[in-house]
Amino acid sequence: MNKELSVLNSKINVFLHGGDYNPDQWLNYPEILKEDVRLMKLANCNCVTINIFGWSAIEPEEGNYTFEWLDKIMNDMVANNIHVILATPSGARPAWMSEKYPEVLRVSSDRGKNLHGQRHNHCFTSPVYRKKTYEINKLLAERYKDHPALIMWHISNEYSGECHCELCQEAFRNWLKKKYDNNLDKLNEAWWTGFWSHKLTNWSQIESPSEKGEKFVHGHNLDWQRFVTDQTIDFYKNEILPIRTITPNIPVTTNFMGSYPHMGLYIGFDCWKFAEEVDVVSWDSYPAWHNNFESTYDLAVNVSFVHDIYRSLKGGQPFLIMENTPSLVNWQDVNKLKRPGMHLLSSMQGLAHGADSILYFQWRKGRGASEKFHGAVVDHSGQENTRVFREVSEVGEVLKKLQEIQGSIKESEVAIIYDVENRWAIDDAQCLKKENKEHEGYRQVDRKRYEETCQKAYKAFWNRGVSADVINMDCDFSKYKLVVAPMLYMVRPKVADRINEFVKQGGTLVTTYFSGIVDENDLCFLGGFPGPLREVTGIWAEEIDSLYENEVNYIELKGSKIDSLKESYEVKDYCDLIHAETAEVLGVYKNDFYANMPALTVNNYGKGKAYYIAARTGEDFNNDFYSKLIDDLNIKSVIDGKLPKGVTAQMRSNKDNKYIFVMNFTEEEKKISLGETIYIDMLSGEALSKEIHMDKYGVKILKE
Ligand code: GAL
To answer: Which residues are catalytic (predicted)?
Structure first.
């Protein structure tokens, strides 16, 4: 990747505000297209994303191109100082293509071929589909390469899913041959095929996982998911070939999925690998604000966690929020309106975590089809006098006032490891407890709340206004003071060496139960868990007990050297039965036949320390324990004073300034103590110090 492409296009030094604009649906309504431009300016929008699903409007019949409408939109945008992020249309294709070339249609894991319809319904391997997407992208690049409106490419839309057609089966076998050096014995060993007589004697016997066939060989499932990642990236690389050649200076992004399905990380692909191939990371954020199953504050923590994943994907480079809704999301179970104030607050939350845009799905509600009731900036009433329109305009105003923050970064001394392959493997493992059992195609997934466990650890830092990166296990640990690796079940090659080195050099590691269990093929480590982490943690984990929902145990810290912690904390779900080898025991279990066995340990290793939390702890323990580490390690909080529950503070900075976002994710007014530092409120211009009051869903952006 060119270095100069690694930041947003140099043409852009403003926060982008606007979003998905689908004029292709409105070509019979020229007066509406004209009105759109007036309204965009009123709403303080400076950017649109177009052509995402425009293929049948630019190529209604094979080889018959009708770009004129797109030319007009591009020209109208530039005439009104509105930037364009231009999409390649591969997310959905015209019906003529599926009819003429059925190989482009996706085959599901039950081996049924899809009919034409919906979207994201194509085979990633099909040479025809690759040729067609290459050709249309080349035409787009040639036509708009010098267009002043064009600032970025939006490649396809939310790449996801998998295809099981014959072409993909062949590609999978070839991928495996390459991975296993053409040696079937190596594959048989990695997949442990002695199990249930699954030994393979010919590559042709290999099929992708299916509910009708193989689904219990975990190494096989993992390799399939890795193949799907690689094949999706390969398809994308083919899409960008003409774009890179014709417009080498226009950055490229693709919109990753945030939390659906399961952060887009489960089925689909490993976004860490994909991120290497894009210039700018972008994602689509659709939280269910104001739901009745979690507090606003808890949901906000989860959203922050996902923002921090996307920021960390490219080492902290600012990312884009490519889609979010200004109002309701029409596909949630209950389509709740965003309450007044939440739109500004959630937008600022994105910025606080490193986003350089607030872009919406979508600009204007369509008249028909499944998204006609999805929140949009312009409603069916077609005018500016709506609550949502006013709130969007306000966000646009605020972004202008905050312009100097654009491009600044967020630094962290703490990292939480949340690893996609580890997630795949944990979800597939048949053990522990069946929590949130779900079906996903051929998979029956026993989720063990891995993501939630990582988020709960993360929350302790959010509460204190401490910035944390969310990284995978291949990232560089050396820049952090503290690395927290909950449930690090899979440990890929060299990871343990890197962890050891990190701790030896003075770093602090926290890991937990269900860590160091399998290698990269999901084969259990022999010789005692936590496998390659045994030396650094100084413990041996012999067995894990699972607890029923109504069962609890306790970690007793009586007489331990950890001051500031309570004497006892409740633990649930999992209790790892461990033996301290070189580690010091800080806490023991209270109950059951393993009473008095270690439940919390620390091992001095080189200049650093490795903590092992043997059981699933609750919020009280996490807050106290991580607060202690924050203090001991001198980790910086954004604000000196203690933050009230539900309020966080996050900071971005550049060489000249520090920008602090204080956000109240509760329904009550809160007082926040700022200490002696004097800040300027960037929205009101007022000088602030000592104590501030924040309304329900209030947000303040302070400059030190
Ligand atoms: C996204 C998708 C958009 C739109 C939106 C609705 O996942 O990229 O095209 O469908 O959801 O929430």
So the answer is: 158 (proton donor), 323 (nucleophile)
Which tens digits make up the pLDDT trace of 172-217?
999 999 999 999 999 999 999 999 999 999 999 999 999 999 999 9
Q: Is 556 a catalytic residue?
A: no
Asked if the model's pLDDT at residue 359 lies above 80, the reply is: yes
* CB 312 within 8 Å of CB 471: yes
Can you give the pTM of this predicted structure?
0.97
d(CA 468, ligand 1 centre) in Å? 28
Rounded Cα distance, 638 and 641, in Å: 9
Identify whether 158 is a catalytic site residue. Answer: yes
Q: Is the predicted pLDDT of residue 442 greater than 70, yes or no? A: no
CA 227 to ligand 1 centroid distance, Å? 25
Query: Which listed residue (214, 239, 323, 556) is catalytic?
Result: 323
* Residue 523 near residue 531 (C-beta atoms within 8 A): no
Is 157 annotated as contributing to ligand binding?
yes
Distance in angstroms (rounded) separating the CA atoms of residues 51 and 493: 43
The Cα 169–Cα 166 span in angstroms is: 5
- CA–chain centroid gap for 534, Å, is 30
Ordered domains of the chain (ranges, CATH): 16-159+223-403 (3.20.20.80), 414-632 (3.40.50.880), 647-703 (2.60.40.1180)
Per-residue pLDDT, 663? 98
The reply to whether ligand 1 has any atom less than 6 angstroms from the CB of 323 is yes
454 annotated ligand binder: no
689 band by pLDDT with thresholds 50, 70 and 90:
confident
Q: What is the 3-state secondary structure (H, E, C) of 128-183?
A: HHHHHHHHHHHHHHHHHCCCCCEEEEECCCCCCCCCCCHHHHHHHHHHHHHHCCCC
- 639, amino acid identity: I
Ligand 1 atom closest to the CA of 257, numbered from 1: 7
Question: Which residue's CA is minimally distant from atom 5 of ligand 1?
Answer: 361
How many angstroms separate the alpha carbon of residue 79 from the centre of ligand 1? 28
Report whether 378 contacts 414 (CB < 8 A).
no
